[in-house]
Amino acid sequence: MNSLSLPAKASAIFLSVVLVVAVFAPWISPYSYEAQDAASVLSPPSASHWMGADRLGRDLFSRILYGARISLFIGVCATLSAVLIGTVYGAVSGYAGGRTDLFMMRVVDVVFALPDLLLIILITVVLGRGVAAIFIALSMVSWVTVARLVRGETLRIKEFSFVEAARALGAGHARILFNEILPNILGLLIVTLTFRIPAAIMAESTLSFVGLGIAPPASSWGTLANDGWTSLKFYPHLILYPSLAIFATILSFNFLGEGLRDLLDPRGKSKPS
Amino acid sequence: MLRYFFKRLLHGVPVLVAVATLTFFIMHVVPGGPFDQDKKLPPEIVANIEAKYHLDKPLLQQYLLFMAQILQGDLGPSYKYLGRDVSAIVRDTFPVSLTLGLCAVLVTLGLGVPAGILSAYKQNSALDRTCIFLATLGISVPSFVLGALLILVLSHYLHLLPPALWEGPRHAVMPAFALGAAFAGYIARLTRSTMLEVLSSDYIRTARAKGLSEASVLLKHALKNAVSPIVSVMGPIAAGLVTGSFVVEYIFSVPGMGNFFITAVTNRDYPLIMGVTLIYAALIVLANIAVDMVYVWLDPRVRI
């Protein structure tokens, strides 16, 4: 199979749209995300408010467009930094081997022992509940998974003869790591990235939903869903649309990740599963 | 086996000490305390409160006091729920969370394993594709979205199940499903891929050649060998259930430990946060030990 599967392609298109919308939210959205309109308080979806309005009369569609900025920013950037940290850490640990490796992996084990959400909550208790705090907390938690993965691959790849050949040619450690070993993990890293991003988005929205994540007035999709939660029975549209945004984005990332895995990581051997 | 159990238990101790130490110091570098209020309290009262909770002592001494308390099974007083200590709160709420967690495990295995077996058995059929699709849906749906949807449809529109509280088996159905669905999806996919691998092996062909019934081949020969990978992911799943639980408890107003944990974080009730974190960590350590024990018991090739 040389091209992406159909669901993966569709997902890639959908995610590109979401990304464009997030970046250009101020120009695309019909209203400002904080403009209050007393006449349309809690109005259901209509021609003027596509997804209805919240209890302050703010246009939900606009708020979801703006929410995409925060949710995606946190999901993508926290994952990128986690993958970066994890890759360097794991590669160095696996490449160095011996006692260095043992010590570095002990540190990973301790972070790994605590469940992600719990650790993120503890960190945000210290750092506050801003976007930056959640970003740092998410990065600090999820780099360990990447580190483990990269270490394992490094251990395997460094025994190959092309690495030995590079060493025989006089390549230094840094050169071997960055020119020989890391390019061979790139496919795995891209797949990991696409699977970690939805996990980060899920974690952030879950925390924001229970009121432990992003604090208003900044609103991620999770915060919006929490807003809608209190009026679930009478104004279900308020929770429906943010939830749909979260769900569709996570689902698309998962489909894309599966497609990429089949394409880039032939050892993933889980056929079209 | 028993020796192995105690050895593993002993290995869990440093993890718990690390967790206790970590949470203690994290909680104490936080600016602002649980007694900060909009209205400034008179200094004498602040001094009194701090003396009562040993907050006036040096940090190291507070730490040692805290650790000594834990060793006696005392998790300290709650700052917010006056007159109740953390151990009592945990004692009241833990059984609720545990029941919810076990029900969710039932959902996870009860839905995931059969779906995975069917999917593998009818590989590439419409049934297989439906199962895979549902599994991916389950993995992608956050539990609070599923929970809200269940409440909306089953409680508000159809009036089939109670939307909140914890007063009987009917109250457990939706929370257990909301909590277990994602893991069921995960287990279904795992079961499918290991079953596919097992089903293509020689001894399955032999079993079929012997003229055994399909059910016997699937359940007795194949599943037995596919079960190890499923058991080995139950450790991480237990951890996921533990943290997933507080979201679900929040949505369904279940009076469990997770719900108290959320309130404790919002109230900065430090002893309660530390206590619950510690219990969570202990649970995960225990779950991992249990998983490893089952693993060894299932697969005699694994050396202790």
How would you describe this structure to a colleague?
The complex is a heterodimer of chains A (273) and B (304). By secondary structure, chain A is an all-alpha fold. Chain A has one domain (6-36, 49-268): Orthogonal Bundle (MetI-like fold), CATH 1.10.3720.10. Helices cover 72% and strands 0% of the residues of chain A. Chain A contains 10 helices and no strands. In chain A, helix 1 (6-23) packs across helix 10 (237-264), helix 7 (161-168) crosses helix 8 (173-209) and helix 9 (221-229) packs antiparallel against helix 10. The longest helix of chain A is centred in the first third of the chain and has 37 residues, at 60-96. Chain A is elongated, with a radius of gyration of 22 Å. Residues 269-273 of chain A have low confidence and may be disordered. Chain B is an all-alpha fold. Chain B has a domain at 93-298: Orthogonal Bundle (MetI-like fold). Chain B is built from 12 helices and no strands. Chain B has helices spanning 2-29, 43-52, 59-71, 86-121, 126-140, 143-157, 169-199, 202-209, 214-232, 234-251, 257-267, 270-298. In chain B, helix 1 runs antiparallel to helix 3 (59-71). The longest helix of chain B is centred in the middle third of the chain and has 36 residues, at 86-121. The N and C termini of chain B lie close together (8 Å). The chains are: A mainly alpha (273), B mainly alpha (304). The A-B interface holds A 110, 113-118, 121-123, 125-126, 198, 202, 205-206, 209-212, 225, 229, 232-233, 236, 239, 243, 246-247, 250-251, 254-255, 258, 270-273 and B 15, 18-19, 23, 26-27, 29-30, 132, 136-137, 139-145, 148-149, 151-152, 156, 189, 192-193, 196, 239-240, 242-243, 246-247, 250-251, 262, 265-266, 268, 273, 277, 280-281, 284-285.
Write the layout of secondary structure elements.
The complex is a heterodimer of chains A (273) and B (304).
Chain A: H1 6-23, H2 25-28, H3 60-96, H4 98-113, H5 116-127, H6 131-157, H7 161-168, H8 173-209, H9 221-229, H10 237-264
Helix pairs in contact in A: 1-3, 1-10, 3-4, 3-6, 3-8, 3-10, 4-6, 5-6, 6-8, 7-8, 8-9, 8-10, 9-10
Chain B: H1 2-29, H2 43-52, H3 59-71, H4 86-121, H5 126-140, H6 143-157, H7 169-199, H8 202-209, H9 214-232, H10 234-251, H11 257-267, H12 270-298
